[in-house]
Amino acid sequence: MTAEPFAPPSAAEHLVRLIEYSETLHAHPETAWQEHRAARWTADLLAESGFAVTTGYLGFPTAVHASYGSGSRRVGFIVEYDALPGLGHACGHNLIAAMSAGAAIALRPWARELDLRIDVIGTPAEEGGGGKIEMLDAGAFTDLDLALMAHPGPVDAPRAEPYAVAHDHVRFVGRSAHAAAYPHEGRNAGDAFVVAQVALGLLRQQLPPGTRVHGIQTVGGEAPNAIPGVTEGRWYTRAETLADLEPLHRRVRQCFEAGALATDTALDFTPESQPYSEFRTDERALEIYMRHALALGRSFDAPVEHQTMNRASTDLGNVSQHVPAIHPYIGLGSFPVSNHQPEFAAVCVGEAADRVIADGATLLARTAHEYFS
């Protein structure tokens, strides 16, 4: 679709529209790969603002690409809009979407002066699905000169230092049997999980510093008097880098193999996505962001233990290996309430959230403007 001539709204009108967009996303959470309404609302917002919009970008039904300008230099503002199963927008992706879209709209009047093409890329499935990695493989992002997004957290933490992470689906298949009358006929898939978790617990003593292993069992059986024939779970393995992740991931898998061996069950250990990478920060862009953030009245002096949301894994890490990028965390002032808690979802709308949208969009736009000046 072709962009029509557009007169920018006032800053106040702009912010009202961004808040409305963010609150709409928040009220209608959609999980990974299912963000159909979110993608449509994102496309509508950007089309209203004079961008040329492509939906179903690169064949991904819930990906969006919007652009303005025809400059030789390209800046990309990255939108996320997937929610967490059962928790809604407890990671604040509704705010990410509003900040990135808002920054792109705010920068639009300077596109010609800066010789820019301004891109907004709506990306599905950050929460475990690796949407950006799939899009990167399909050719997205690589023509950008800079990729920018900001992520809400309890406090400001400008430098992203995420773990590399592998996401796996685990399934044990045994044989059901009556637990009292014919227990010897069963092959207990529940016990396979117990053995695996004991092995993981013992492994923790030998885990290198800066690693994490955690997960949940999603299917545990059907009745107390029936030996479970099938159990399932989701497991994450994290390390400082992809290189560090590989040997740790192998050992984690061996713990699940031990559960299968001990119980004579079959193991299906399947990646849910490609591994997420560590992050490579563009130092110049981060310095510009931090300087403008301080001038805007934001602070980076929260205790270190409050800033650890910057360790959260992100598939933008994979993009950062190919394109200069930053991924600062912008605070809602909510600590000890933090991401992936129901209480955090609640603070992702309201007065603090509105300020984050205004500040985040302003800072991303100012960072891009100075970077390309």
The structure class reads: alpha/beta
Strand order of the largest sheet: 1-2-4-3-5-13
CATH topology of the largest domain: Aminopeptidase
Number of helices: 10
Mean pLDDT: 95
Helix-strand pattern: HHEEEHEHEEEEHEEEHEHHEEHH
Outline? elongated
Q: For this entry, what is the oligomeric state of its chains? A: single chain
Which CATH-level-2 architecture of the largest domain? 3-Layer(aba) Sandwich
Specify the biggest β-sheet: 6 strands, mixed
CATH superfamily of the largest domain: Zn peptidases
Number of strands: 14
Q: How many domains, in number, for the residues?
A: 2
The CATH class name of the largest domain reads: Alpha Beta
Provide the β-strand percentage band.
15-25%
The Rg value, from CA coordinates, equals 23 Å
Helix content: 25-40%
Keywords: Hydrolase
Protein name: Peptidase M20 domain-containing protein 2
Family: Belongs to the peptidase M20A family.
Pfam family, one: M20_dimer
